[in-house]
Write a structure and sequence with these properties.
Order of helices and strands of chain C: HHHHHHHHHHHHHH
Number of helices of chain B: 14
Oligomer: heterotrimer
CATH topology of the domain at 73-170 and 240-321 in chain B: Rossmann fold
Strand order of the largest sheet of chain B: 6-7-8-3-9-10
CATH class of the domain at 73-170 and 240-321 in chain B: Alpha Beta
Number of helices of chain C: 14
Shape of chain B: globular
Distance between the termini of chain B: 37 Å
CATH topology of chain C: MetI-like fold
Largest interface: A-C, 94 and 89 residues
Radius of gyration of chain B: 20 Å
Structural class of chain C: mainly alpha
Low-confidence stretches of chain B: 1-58
CATH superfamily of the domain at 73-170 and 240-321 in chain B: P-loop containing nucleotide triphosphate hydrolases
Low-confidence stretches of chain C: 1-23
Chains: A mainly alpha, B alpha/beta, C mainly alpha
Bound molecules: adenosine-5'-triphosphate, magnesium ion
Number of strands of chain B: 10
Order of helices and strands of chain B: HHHHEEEHEEHEHHHHEHEHEEHH
């Protein structure tokens, strides 16, 4: 056994010819392409029973999707086609709502905060702030989830949410502090540091000549950083937002802790109550139902959710590429 | 001939040789120069002859700095006055007690060997040196009689425009590059039509408009180096500054683009005071009225171009224009 | 070409001697003189910056306070046990080992793959179309939600072919969850970071380095191995450490691919291999399980585990900073 290993190591350590190296390294490099292909094939394949049974009906609502998933558990190993019935709009809506608001709100804060860090912050503040933000961007999401569920949720439950408001909807849905508001806040706190870190890096990489050129034209500091630096850094900012969006879309465990995990579509017409209504994004629905995988109908539904997330993240990647194209034509390094 | 229609320079229209203006200064001087007399006899001999047969002599810096000669009377009013300016970075003193004045309509060429402080001096005139943390300055620089320290930076830099050695157009369209300057320099944002008019006008003045064929939405970074530099000039003059500082504007350019920019300097000069740093003595000879020669931070000699090149009074000037050092 | 008519500007005479007119403080770029629009935006930048500082400081301070309060050595050394009261749920030894093990496995697979891909794309990269496709694919993997990767991994590792990687039930169903399965999928989230770091390192190397080596008659691959890769070791190290950070922070893959067991749960009899084939937990899933959202409901232990996670992330971040600083210094001395 060890003999085989030593000879194998010796073989690898022999000088390679360039042709061998090209082929070998190229084969390894192609692994990612195979991976993407395999992901699409396997996930869509596993989702197929549900996809073919429901079609675009998946994106409709009107039924309690949580109950649908629950009843799928008991449909046996060979469920009839009717067992696959799934109206997942509440999950899709929750995903779009939470991720969209958190990323857009976070993006505004991130751009302004980055400008502050790069241009206006006192040197001492900057020296502490940049590494800390970078650290925050690397903090595991479950830590944010923990703070959310142990600090924010009780706070909202006790101090912001009046008993009257809770009682007014108690026949429909339970309000317990989790839901729209806390999900958006915590998700924004999670993705904003990432966007700040990337934007600051991009702003710092702006060639000195451009900043100097703006200053020499009589631009004040704001005009120089906003009109030239931020503008030139747009591709990087777009990439940062896309990366943040795909993190937000796919955030599963943290959101399952604080979203309320209820397949409910909060209605903006409910006024302030809207902020406290529970919901359940796709990713959270996947993690929470992963134990039900043995039931084919549940499995297929879970893979439908994964398919939606997979294609949205692929679309985001492509969208970010397309968004950067015109800028690349402008000659901006992307 | 592929020459764009606006190139009216005698040198370029008389022959197809784009180098003509370089090799024969007399050819291109006529349309550009204004302050020399009209008869041909006053034209200087080609630079090459001046440059020949000089033998280096020992230098005594203490006695080798000469006072400036009285100004040409045909120049306009005084714009910039530099009084006993010294500039340095940290411990190092890079410009030493320099005094001179610059008038409207004048083109002043700053020459001198590499590292003698030309760029530093130029950048101190619009206070760009302040961007370097270690930089300091003594003495005074007055713009129209007011210390430049009294003026807010944006206001000052709107009056004293600058063109850098490396063309630095912003990564936007040509139009946006100039519109940026116009928007930045006006307290009230002018209307769309007015911005467009002024963009076109400054592109015309920089001799770029006809070359572009009306395509102002082209990315500025797609232009050639020479076109980029002219775009930067257009950007700098878009709102009629009083002084134009140019730091080796042609050092990255080919002879044809250089000739175009030199022509441009000749056209711009009347409404501006221009300070141009150049390593190209022939170019200094062609475009400048006055020349200031700096050496290791000292202003060694400052006088009319013909005098500095043909009868340099200081030994170090003589050696420099003869090509001994630098 | 008509230039604008020459209008001589009026000249204001100097009334006093220069010395008297010299202001004490040079006029800079005072915000007070800016347009209202810019003043508001400038205020927004400051507000965003201060907001970010406040949020960052309170999160870090809160976690440190809670963590220092609840983290103690006995907690680290005890094995976790399921229990209802916080007192009898044991410690976090197994999750800690799980985190280290998963990180090790993930990095072990990610590093060679990421580096080889970067070398091929950066140094060979022919055909160019393929190289560009691989680059885009890496970007797509980087933007892929972890939960999608996890669920994809489950689809793969539950194939009968991969039964040797995990537990196989009596009926022939493959469990698909094990340390090796989780580690393999976790390597996917680290690959883009290692790839990017290596790629950037290679791109920054001066061309003369390669040409000098080729001039000595070395093959391309030999140049890469003996000249280029040693030069960019710090970049690679940074990428690997960043990748480790991502792996440490992941929750979704662990939940899906490591099972929900608190304790390390060996499968089979071969020592070493049995742990790899078995499931377990990591600190992130422990935090999840111990939070009110999980089954444990032991918030103090959740805080302690989250703090430990945070310490690991801080350590990894400091490592990145240290590698970066060290290379910067050596560049200066070179
Ligand atoms: N930012 C700076 N910090 C410290 N020293 C500097 C800085 N910029 C320039 N110097 C020093 O000041 C001196 C003058 O530099 P400067 O750029 O003004 O020379 P120059 O005459 O423009 O040279 P060149 O003809 O090569 O452009 C040099 O010795 C240089 O090392
Ligand atoms: Mg210079």
């Amino acid at each position: 056994m060890s003999n085989v290993i030593t000879t194998a190591i010796a073989r690898v350590r022999e000088p390679w010819s360039d042709r061998q190296a090209t082929v070998l390294l190229g084969a390894v490099a192609c692994f990612v392409l195979v991976l993407i292909g395999a992901m699409i094939i396997f996930i869509v394949h596993a989702a197929w029973p549900s996809l073919s049974a429901n079609g675009l009906g998946i994106f409709t609502g009107g039924h309690d999707v949580d109950k649908q998933l629950g009843s799928m558990l008991v449909t046996g190993q060979h469920p009839p086609k009717s067992a696959y019935h799934l109206n997942a709009w509440p999950y899709v809506y929750a995903t779009i709502l939470i991720a969209g608001v958190a990323v857009l709100g976070g993006l505004v804060i991130a751009v302004f905060a980055s400008v502050f860090i790069v241009e206006f912050a006192p040197e001492r503040v900057r020296r502490v702030l940049v590494p800390t933000v970078r650290l925050l961007a690397a903090v595991p999401s479950v830590v944010f989830g923990l703070i959310g569920i142990l600090v924010l949720v009780p706070f909202i439950d006790h101090d912001l949410l009046s008993t009257k408001r809770q009682e007014s909807v108690t026949h429909l849905v339970q309000l317990d502090g989790t839901g729209v508001m806390v999900s958006i806040i915590v998700l924004a706190i999670m993705v904003t540091p990432l966007m700040i870190a990337l934007t600051v890096e991009a702003l710092r990489a702006i060639p000195h000549g451009w900043k100097e050129g703006a200053a020499a034209l009589g631009a004040n500091r704001w005009e120089a950083i906003w009109g030239v630096s931020v503008r030139a850094a747009r591709p990087a900012i777009i990439s940062a937002a896309v990366l943040a969006a795909s993190r937000a879309l796919g955030e599963a465990v943290m959101l399952s802790m604080i979203s309320g995990s209820r397949g409910w579509s909060p209605n903006p017409l409910d006024g302030l109550t809207y902020l406290f209504e529970p919901l359940r994004p796709l990713a959270a629905a996947i993690v929470e139902n992963v134990d039900g995988l043995n039931a084919p109908a549940v499995k297929s539904s879970i893979y439908v959710f994964a398919t939606i997330l997979l294609f949205s993240s692929l679309l985001l990647s492509i969208g970010s590429y397309l968004a950067r194209l015109p800028l690349r034509r402008q000659g901006v390094r992307v | 001939m592929t020459s764009p229609p606006r190139l009216r320079s005698h040198a370029l229209s008389a022959t197809d040789d784009p180098f003509a203006s370089l090799t024969d200064p007399a050819a291109s001087r006529e349309p550009v120069r204004r302050s020399t007399s009209d008869d041909g006899a006053a034209l200087p001999p080609p630079i090459k002859r001046v440059v020949l047969d000089r033998t280096p002599r020992p230098i005594d810096p203490a006695t080798d700095v000469v006072a400036p000669i009285a100004k040409d009377q045909t120049l306009g009013p005084e714009r910039l006055r530099i009084e006993h300016v010294s500039i340095g970075y940290g411990e190092a003193r890079v410009v030493k007690d320099l005094s001179l004045s610059i008038h409207q309509g004048e083109v002043l060429a700053l020459i001198g060997p590499s590292g003698c402080g030309k760029t530093t001096f130029l950048r101190s005139m619009n206070r760009l040196t302040e961007q370097t943390a270690s930089a300091w300055r003594e003495g005074q620089i007055l713009l129209d009689g007011r210390d430049i320290y009294e003026t807010e930076l944006p206001r000052l830099r709107r009056k004293i425009a600058m063109v850098f050695q490396q063309p630095n157009p912003f990564p936007m369209s040509i139009f946006d590059n100039i519109a940026y300057a116009i928007r930045v320099q006006n307290r009230k944002t002018p209307g769309k039509a007015e911005v467009r008019e002024r963009v076109v006008d400054s592109l015309r003045r920089a001799g770029l408009y006809d070359e572009l064929g009306g395509d102002l939405d082209k990315p500025a970074l797609r232009l050639s180096g020479g076109q980029q530099q002219r775009l930067c000039i257009a950007r700098a003059i878009a709102t009629n500054p009083e002084v134009l500082l140019m730091d080796e504007p042609c050092s990255a350019l080919d002879p044809r683009s250089t000739a175009v920019i030199e022509d441009l300097i000749g056209e711009l000069r009347e409404s501006l005071a221009i300070v141009i740093v150049t390593h190209n003595l022939a170019q200094a000879h062609r475009v400048a009225d006055n020349v200031a020669f700096m050496y290791l931070g000292d202003l060694v000699e400052h006088g009319p171009v013909d005098q500095v090149f043909e009868q340099p009074r200081a030994q170090r000037t003589r050696d420099y224009v003869a090509g001994v050092f630098g | 070409m008509s230039s604008a008519p020459v209008v001589p500007r009026p000249v204001t005479p100097v009334p006093t001697t220069p010395q008297e007119r010299r202001p004490v403080q040079p006029a800079g770029d005072s915000v007070r003189n800016w347009r209202l629009r810019h003043r508001i935006a400038h205020g927004a930048a400051w507000a965003a910056g201060i907001f970010v500082i406040a949020v960052t400081a309170s999160i870090m301070g809160f976690m440190a306070w809670k963590g220092l309060h609840y983290l103690n050595p006995s907690l680290i050394w005890q094995r976790p046990t399921p229990g209802l009261a916080q007192g009898d749920t044991g410690g976090i030894r197994d999750p800690l080992i799980g985190t280290l093990l998963a990180t090790f496995i993930g990095t072990l697979f990610a590093a060679p793959l990421g580096i080889a891909t970067a070398v091929w794309v950066g140094e060979y990269g022919k055909p160019a179309k393929l190289a560009r496709a691989i680059e885009s694919a890496i970007e797509m993997v980087a933007g892929m939600p972890n939960i999608v990767l996890a669920i994809f991994g489950l689809a793969i590792f539950q194939l009968p072919f991969f039964s040797f990687l995990s537990f196989k039930a009596q009926g022939g169903g493959v469990y698909g969850r094990s340390f090796i399965a989780a580690g393999l999928i976790m390597s996917l989230i680290a690959i883009p970071l290692i790839y990017t770091a290596t790629r950037e390192g290679l791109a920054q190397l001066p061309a003369k380095l390669r040409e000098g080596s080729w001039a000595l008659g070395k093959t391309k691959i030999c140049t890469i191995r003996t000249v280029l890769l040693p030069q960019i070791r710090p970049n690679i190290a940074t990428g690997i450490v960043l990748g480790m950070g991502r792996i440490v922070g992941d929750t979704a893959i662990v939940v899906v691919l490591l099972g929900a067991a608190l304790q390390i749960d060996p499968v089979g009899d071969t020592p070493g291999l049995n742990v790899l084939r078995g499931g377990g937990s990591t600190l992130t899933t422990y935090v999840y399980a111990a939070s009110p959202a999980g089954e444990g409901n032991a918030p103090q232990k959740a805080y302690a585990a989250a703090f430990l996670l945070l310490l690991i992330v801080v350590f990894l971040n400091a490592l990145v900073g240290w590698i970066g600083r060290r290379t910067k210094n050596s560049e200066i001395t070179q």
